[in-house]
């Protein structure tokens, strides 16, 4: 892990992230990128599916609890080996977030907040986009 944890990360939401595809998934996929993962508290990979519950405050001051989970059951007889941010569906629906919107997660020590902005060019296509739209945000 990098020595310094980023104070903010951002993601352009996909149709899959927002539920617009109609499919079921366990939260938003977090890439196995050291800088992105460093934003979150460390997880103990020696236990099955370790997690941290994180309380975020939205721009209106409402509190939301998300779970940062490492689904590592591949090492315990299962098939998954991925990081996810789960329990986000109620927030995504309440904020009416859609594909193309930008979600930014902020961290100031143990305090987590989030902001979002409506994307100017939402991806309304049915095509699957490969790759990640997660980015570290430079705070000045």
What does this structure look like?
This protein is mainly beta. The chain has a single domain, classed as Beta Barrel (At1g16640 B3 domain), CATH 2.40.330. 11% of the residues lie in helices and 33% in strands. It has 3 helices and 8 strands, in the order βαβαβββαβββ. An 8-stranded mixed beta sheet has the order 2-5-4-3-7-6-1-8. The protein is globular, with a radius of gyration of 15 Å. It starts with 7 loop residues before the first strand and ends with a strand. 19% of the residues are buried. About 4% of the residues have low confidence.
The neighbouring-strand order within the major sheet is 2-5-4-3-7-6-1-8
Low-confidence spans: 125-130
Strand content: 25-35%
User: Which sheet architecture does the biggest sheet show?
Assistant: 8 strands, mixed
End-to-end CA span: 22 Å
The number of domains: 1
CATH superfamily: DNA-binding pseudobarrel domain
Average pLDDT number: 87
Number of helices: 3
Architecture, according to CATH?
Beta Barrel
Helix content: 10-25%
Instruction: Supply the helix-strand structural class.
Output: mainly beta
SSE succession:
EHEHEEEHEEE
Radius of gyration: 15 Å
Question: For the record, what CATH class applies?
Answer: Mainly Beta
> What is the CATH topology assignment?
At1g16640 B3 domain
Rough outline: globular
Number-wise, the strands total 8
Topology:
Elements: E1 8-12, H1 15-18, E2 28-30, H2 34-39, E3 51-57, E4 63-71, E5 82-86, H3 89-94, E6 102-108, E7 111-117, E8 134-136
Parallel strand pairs: 3-7
Antiparallel strand pairs: 1-6, 1-8, 2-5, 3-4, 4-5, 6-7
């Amino acid at each position: 892990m990098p020595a310094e944890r980023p104070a903010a990360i951002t993601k352009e939401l996909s149709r899959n992230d927002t539920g617009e595809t109609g499919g079921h998934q366990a939260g938003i996929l977090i890439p196995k990128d050291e800088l992105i993962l460093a934003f979150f508290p460390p997880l103990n990979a020696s236990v099955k599916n370790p997690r941290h519950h994180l309380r975020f405050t939205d721009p209106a001051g409402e509190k939301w609890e998300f779970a940062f989970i490492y689904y590592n059951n591949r090492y315990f007889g299962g098939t998954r080996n991925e990081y996810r941010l789960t329990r986000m569906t109620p927030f995504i629906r309440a904020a009416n977030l859609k594909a193309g919107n930008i979600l930014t997660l902020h961290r100031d020590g143990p305090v987590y907040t989030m902001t979002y902005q409506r994307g100017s060019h939402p991806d309304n296509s049915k095509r699957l986009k490969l790759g990640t739209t997660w980015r570290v945000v430079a705070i000045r």
